[in-house]
Amino acid sequence: MINVLFVLLGIIILLGASFFLFPYQFLKCITSILRYTVYRADLIEKYKIPKTGPVLLAANHVSPFDALIIMALTKRKI
């Protein structure tokens, strides 16, 4: 029983440390998992997003999660 507690505590500490060390990658990983399981969002005409230079990406909803979903859908760092 104590071993299971130590393993769970270690996983929690590892997740917390990864959030503080790599916040962008951590959020992108979590939102990508949610994108495939819960939201089933898809990006239409992905080829139109330039690989470099300025770009304006806008969601058609007003939600606090829209920016996270856009982050999960694109390969660019937002």
Explain what the structure shows.
Helix content is 58%, strand content 0%. The protein contains three helices and no strands. The chain has helices at 2-21, 23-39, 66-73. Helix 1 packs across helix 2. It is mainly alpha-helical and 78 residues long.
Quick recap:
The chain has helices at residues 2-21, 23-39, 66-73.
Index terms:
mainly alpha; elongated; 78 residues; 0% strand; 58% helix
User: Number of DSSP helices?
Assistant: 3
Task: List how many beta strands DSSP finds.
Answer: 0
Helix content: 55-70%
Element-by-element helix/strand order: HHH
Largest sheet: none
Q: How confident overall, as mean pLDDT?
A: 81
Shape: elongated
Query: Rg from C-alpha positions?
Result: 16 Å
Provide the structure class.
Answer: mainly alpha
Proportion in β-strands: under 5%
Indicate the low-confidence ranges by residue numbers. none
Distance linking N and C termini: 43 Å
